[in-house]
Amino acid sequence: MIAERYGDISVALKGHVAEVEIHRLPNNHVSVDLMRDLANAFEAIDADGRVRAIVLASEGKVFCGGADLVRRDGLASGKPTMVNPLYVEAVRLFSCATPIIAAVQGAAIGAGLGLALVADFRIVAQEARFAANFVKLGFHPGFGLSHTLPRVIGLQRANLMFQTGRRIRGEEALQWGLADELVPQEKLRARAHELAAEIAENAPLAVRSTRATLRRGLAAAVKAATDHEFAEQEMLMKTADFAEGVRAVNERRPGNFTGK
Questions:
Q1: Does residue 207 lie within any of the structural domains?
Q2: What is the value of pTM for the model shown?
Q3: Which domain holds residue 105?
Q4: Can you give the three-state secondary structure of the chain, one letter per residue?
Q5: Per-residue pLDDT reduced to its tens digit, 20-39
Q6: What is the total count of domains within the chain?
Q7: Residue of 80, 123, 169, 212 with fewest CB within 10 Å of its CB?
């Protein structure tokens, strides 16, 4: 049975569509617990024959602000380990068998961008912003983005986002294929549900089979990517540039990096 609540994740059924919403205001930062709860919700939905599509949304103005750099529970476990438990949960998310439509109302930054890319489709508002801002932190991309972002927008554009850390607005995201539709904020959830319902009206076994073919090997590729990403992150977290990057982002200023 699908529960109505998994920690800070709520699930509401509307016909054959499940609306899965993140409630971690103000910025809906990722954490191991939050991603575990989300993965648990997805697994329950996969096992429920009533649900044929998921709308992934979040409360407030920010879709997902990435890792919380103050608490740091979104970066790693805080203990020496060969595996980042956050990325274990990320692989579980990419293993979801049910089609996912993300309703992106605002910023999707860092790991938040990675979360948006778990979805098959992204319906975005004019206010949406996307950024892989890791280099501004003196850090390496994570959450499988080194695999998933080029897969969606191409290697060259992904390389541009990674090396500059720039924010991509809704209209540019649509042009690049990062967004599938751009809609007014007030119509965002409704349009995401319309697309989910359009998918859900089809033969569910055929939809899952077709989707599985198109996403074949994706979870395994994300696992390989996150293993490499975490090794690079572990090395970079020990540098002075990373410490400066975290300070600079928290103080909303450019970093003063020294290459050390």
A1: no
A2: 0.94
A3: 5-184
A4: CCCCEECCEEEEEECCEEEEEECCCCCCCECHHHHHHHHHHHHHHHCCCCCCEEEEEECCCCCECCECCCCCCCCCCCCCCCCCHHHHHHHHHHCCCCCEEEEECCEEECHHHHHHCCCCEEEEECCCEEECCHHHHCCCCCCCHHHHHHHHHCHHHHHHHHHHCCEEEHHHHHHHCCCCEEECHHHHHHHHHHHHHHHHCCCHHHHHHHHHHHCCCHHHHHHHHHHHHHHHHHHHCCCHHHHHHHHHHHCCCCCCCCCC
A5: 999 999 999 999 999 999 99
A6: 1
A7: 80
